[in-house]
Structure formats: structure tokens, C-alpha cells
Amino acid sequence: MSGPLDICGIRLRGPVLNGSGTFDAIAARRTFGDALLEDFPFDAFVSKTITLAPREGNPPPRLWEAPAGMINSIGLPNKGLEGFVRHDLPELHELPVPLAVSVMGFSRDELAALVEEVGAREEVSLLELNVSCPNVETGLVMGADPAETGRAVERVRARTEKPLIVKLTPNATDPASVGAAAEAAGADALSLVNTLKGMALDPATGRPWLGTGAGGVSGPAVRAIALEQVREVSARVSIPVIGMGGIGSGRDAADFLLAGADCIAVGTESFRDPAAGRRVSRELTMLSRNERDFSPLRAG
Ligand SMILES: Cc1cc2nc3c(=O)[nH]c(=O)nc-3n(C[C@H](O)[C@H](O)[C@H](O)COP(=O)(O)O)c2cc1C
């Protein structure tokens, strides 16, 4: 289970992706040069989430180091669709692996426009819908509600023939129902988990540390929660599942595959070790030699 595989018809050399927003491939190329391309840490690359209009992101401070993880309140700073296509896409196209572009819209129309434009680009193999934001039309967080998620996926489905991955938020009462609604509306794959809502207080003032008050928790602190959500969601759907949340070793990755994931993603660990993706792959290969296989515990 650590060799080549197909996900939604896209051939990957292995099962290790990056979590959106946790590895800046363009900055890494500037730092490491072509050595990055020769030993690229991931088997497919997921861009950080883009929005239709440019965004500056949230007011600082944006990061807090939590026990066994971090809390971020980055707020999706990005160049917007036009800036992404003009400046980032040509550079991301040079990566030696398939490219998934993560998109977020504050309304279903905005999401549909993004999916259509991004999906039409030949450089893009897959799209990931980040549904962890409020829909300005309904006030509901799209990914927290099965019906809301289903409507969003339905709206964008006809706008592209490219595979659509829906990235689930763990901040939902019943993530498996949200996943099932996304599948019924035409999603080709699911990825989970995004960050869990959390906050930290400034010890000097007793007031919230992060500029926006609260943020998203990631890293080893969330691994057990993510593992259970991956097990639950993958037991409910028949489309592929990309599991993530605190993965930092081949053993962690193997656990997610055993729990039902078809691929895994490395996120926060890449901040500590930019080569973590490659290391996780190597460790997974060693484990698969020593263990019979990682056949999922997936039901049915
Ligand atoms: C600094 C930071 C930025 C992130 N940005 C995004 C993003 O732009 N889009 C997205 O879908 N998820 C984003 N995430 C969530 C990660 O992709 C991943 O789902 C989450 O962190 C759990 O995995 P991990 O514990 O391995 O980091 C971000 C996470 C971090 C820590």
C-alpha cells in the first residue's frame, strides 16, 4: 500500500500528499533549488486555498505553539484567482507530481466560478473544495451541515470534469453524514480532517493570544480525533478518503490507512521538517515490507 496507486483516475507514485496550506512549494523551490524537484516530498501537491478575490489574511498574531501541535489563525491570505493563475500556477506546474488546487468560496456562486476557471486549466489534475467557511447567503458553515455541503457540491459538480475532493471539517456534529452528502452530490473523494477550533490565552494579559481570538488546532494533538473521524467517514462512503491530522511518521500514516484512508497527507510536521513527506513515505515502505499489508478496516 506504499507503491503507485490511482486516485480518482489520477496515477500517483505513492500515497503521501501534503495538507493544503502547510508546504509552500514555491518558497521551498527558492530555498532548495532544483534539489526540491529531484526529491519532492509528496506524491501529489495540494495548493494552499485560493479565493476569488485576493485576501490579506487575519490580523496578527496568527500562530500559537500548543502542546503537541499549533493553533493557527492565518485567514487564507492569497493572491486571488487571477494572481494565482498568473503568478503561482506556472511555478506549481513545474512540480514533478500531479497538482490539486484548493478553492474556497463565500457563496455557492463564488465557489462555482472558481471551480470552473481552475478546472479548465490543463496544469490542474484535481480540485479540492475547502468547505470550512461560512456561506454568506445562509450564515451556515458549509462543511458543518450535510444539506449545505450537498448543495455546494451539487452547484459546482457540473462546472468541471476534473475530480473533486471535498475537504471535511472536524467541527461538525456528524462528519460521516457530511461526507455521505458530499458523495451523493457527486464528490469523487473526501479529505479530512481540517483543523479543530481552538484558542489560547496570552499568559501576560489573560486575553486571547490570536488576532482573531480563536484559530485551528493541528499536529499530533489532533491525531486520535482525526483517526476516528477517518474510520467513521470511510466506513460510510465508497469514494476514496485522504486522511490527515497529526501525521508525523510512517507508523502514523499506516494507522490512517488501516483506519480506512486510501491516501494520507502530512501537514504541521512539514513546518518542523520540510522533508517529512519523503521520510513518512520511506518509513511506510519499510513498514509494508515488515507487515503483511495495510488493508483498511473499512466496512463492507
Ligand atoms: C498554518 C496552516 C495553514 C493551513 N491552511 C490551510 C488551507 O489553506 N486550506 C486548507 O484546506 N487547510 C489548511 N490547513 C489545514 C491542513 O491542511 C490540515 O488539514 C490540518 O492542519 C490537519 O493536519 P496536520 O495536523 O497534519 O497539520 C492549514 C493548517 C495549518 C497548520
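^ flavin mononucleotide complex. The chain has a mean pLDDT of 94. Residues 5-290 form a domain with the TIM Barrel fold (CATH 3.20.20.70).
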